[in-house]
Design brief:
Blueprint lengths: L13 H16 L3 E5 L2 E2 L2 E2 L3 E5 L2 E7 L4 H12 L11
Parallel strand pairs: 1-5
Antiparallel strand pairs: 2-3, 4-5
Helix pairs in contact: 1-2
Length: 89
C-alpha cells in the first residue's frame, strides 16, 4: 500500500494574503508584535489573545486558524483601542 502523501494546504487568495499583510503592518506601526504559534496546552486548544511583556504588546494567534479567521482576530485588536488594564509581565 503506498504511503499517504502529506495534505497540501490550499493557499489563500491573494486578496486575503494582502489584507493579512496590511494588518500585520498596521500592528508593527503601533509597536505590536504578532506571533503565530500552535496554541495548545495539555491537549487543550487555546484561543490566543493579547498580552503585555516588558511594556510591549504581543498578540498570539493560533497558526491553525484560517487566513480569514486570522484577519478577523487581528482586526478585533487593531481596529479598536487597546485595553488599558492588561497587566505587564
Amino acid at each position: 500500500m503506498p504511503a499517504k502523501s502529506p495534505k497540501k494546504k490550499k493557499l489563500p487568495s491573494p486578496a486575503l494574503q494582502n489584507r493579512l499583510s496590511e494588518l500585520e503592518e498596521k500592528a508593527a506601526q503601533k509597536g505590536i508584535h504578532i506571533h503565530y504559534d500552535l496554541l495548545e496546552a495539555a491537549g487543550l486548544k487555546l484561543n490566543g489573545g493579547i498580552c503585555k511583556i516588558n511594556g510591549e504588546y504581543h498578540i498570539f494567534v493560533d497558526k491553525r486558524k484560517s487566513f480569514a479567521d486570522r484577519i478577523d482576530f487581528l482586526r478585533d485588536y487593531l481596529d479598536n483601542p487597546l485595553p488599558d488594564d492588561i497587566p505587564d509581565h
